[in-house]
Please model this.
Amino acid sequence: MSIVDPDILEVEIEIRAQHATVKEMRLDPPICPPERGSPAVVRQADIDALIAAVLDHYAAAGLIDAPRPPDSGPTYVIIQGRRTLALPPNIARQYIVTTKDDLQREADRSGRNIRFIYIFDLEIKIAGSCATVTVGGDHVAPKPLVALGCTEIELFLRRGDRWAFRTSRIGACT
Model:
């Protein structure tokens, strides 16, 4: 029998009759190791590049409850504390950075659900080489419907001048 362990590696587990089989699995969220020395100075360009990597990962793999839609229209993105984002030209047209209030107004006006991804929090550590991002998929619906969604915590590592997705853990669903 094989299972997927928390480090996204497939491992074999031997199961024998009349024997207990135990496999310990961590359910804690992925985090960057603690920093040593003074924290790194994080530039806005580093944050923008990390957000672009998160969106690139979403385009390739989706999120827990928000697979990339099959249509070619743009994806709405809400980023905690941001209304704009400098994205590379090759993906800039795929995403519209907005606010939940603006999406709610559009859902009420159009009478349809609007899906979006929400970047809640991001933290860059280890001299700018490791980052954790809390991101979720959600939708707004015309009032008075209630929106449901889930979040996950993702770990990205810097490889040269690019951020690369490493692993994720499911967070809360509401």
Summary: Helices lie at 44-61, 89-92, 100-110. The chain has one domain: 32-173.
